[in-house]
Amino acid sequence: MQALTRREKSLLRALLTRGGRKRAGLCRCEGLRAVREFLTERPELVEFTVGTERGLASLGEVAPISFRLTTEEEFSGFSATVNHQGILAVGRIPPFSETAPQGDFILALDGLADPGNFGTVARTFRAIGGHDVWYTDGSVDPWGDKAIRSGLGAQFSLRFRRFAALADLGKQAAEYGYRTLFVADPHEGEVCFDCGDLFRKTVLVIGGEANGASTPPPGSRKVVIPMPGDYESLNAAQAATVLLLEYVRRNRGGVKC
Amino acid sequence: MQALTRREKSLLRALLTRGGRKRAGLCRCEGLRAVREFLTERPELVEFTVGTERGLASLGEVAPISFRLTTEEEFSGFSATVNHQGILAVGRIPPFSETAPQGDFILALDGLADPGNFGTVARTFRAIGGHDVWYTDGSVDPWGDKAIRSGLGAQFSLRFRRFAALADLGKQAAEYGYRTLFVADPHEGEVCFDCGDLFRKTVLVIGGEANGASTPPPGSRKVVIPMPGDYESLNAAQAATVLLLEYVRRNRGGVKC
Lengths: 257, 257
Prior knowledge:
The structure is a homodimer of 257-residue chains.
Chain A: H1 6-14, H2 18-24, E1 26-30, H3 32-41, E2 46-51, H4 53-58, E3 67-69, H5 72-78, E4 87-92, E5 105-110, H6 115-127, E6 132-136, H7 145-150, E7 159-163, H8 166-175, E8 180-185, E9 190-191, E10 202-207, E11 221-224, H9 236-251
Parallel strand pairs in A: 2-3, 5-6, 5-10, 6-7, 8-10, 8-11, 9-11
Antiparallel strand pairs in A: 1-4, 2-4
Helix pairs in contact in A: 6-9
């Protein structure tokens, strides 16, 4: 088994920044579940895997690609977490999707700036069988280290597109037949549990943590999660989860309603 | 306006640890929305408020209690966040609840170890109008700095009880007439969207991030969130959100079903 080269070590540091990822066209994916997802779903993108003996053993039946063995101490030096699992993969960032979106709705993230929230939403969307995540400038990089860890690598099974603004996103979606934007609103709109059109070839827009979604294009509809308490709205990741699981509720058992 | 005393400064540091909070019987509550919640809901517990001029101004109509003015630089020195909002309050930790639980169900957190998740769940429960959060040893301290920040201070409107184990919790709940424990399970159980008994004087148990809930006492029932994808389950905070909003879905418009 090979050891890490000096170039690879400096690459691991560089990939923690957006600029570093852009220059290299690569991302780093840390943690057991995320690495498993990467190795299983997109092996053709993986450049190399780094791990300690413990990390390697934890992979079980999943074979690492171009494995570099390292010590626990050295791993701690480049790990982004305090209690690391001793396993990490580096690979190419997949290009933006150019295929037609699939499924009953596109998930759109408009200015979602927190990598933990981005990852959580990606993970939930992957868990309910979603495919297409479109996002606007001002959203966090899906391929950042923290976003990948929070998403448990769900990113590698999803298809992304990026747009300058929500209007451009809406226009592109309409060309594929996804004509209505439903924008999650903390205060008003059609009630998510009752709105029959919510998942009928639509775009579900989740806004950012601080300011919500940007001004939606004409023809958009607002959807609200009813809240009995006179209190703060749910955070962005929680709101997304509620809407995504509402989709599951309606479609469980193969019966669509 | 007074400045911070040396004793208060060292207290701010001490309250970042569980031991320090226990010794002092106090907690620290940082960030605008959390401080507002603390000052509004439990002013009788607040010992003092610390802020910069910017932080003080952001409080708006909410009056601070025993205000200590500090500089931005000094505040950065004891803030637990990188981009602080210049406002923080210190106050007594409320005692465990001794009144009978209220509402259709008790929320039980069994070994929920991540303060961010604990706070998020508290915030969502508060948002749907919940009252009683019971938890077992092994769960994170609700009064830790991160848990309060993630909860936006929802803790100050909730009532907590702590138990050595889930069995003790269940026994106590039964004495108040909350006879059935529904334990959220990632793999199997009654489907949350269909289970008619879910909120009929019950205890809703959310397990920890790593190992789920501990072995439930006899007579408990499992409840599952159906997941179409062959994938990881939702994280603990997302699972709690789905179950709590299912309660809202059934009870919106005042119609209970």
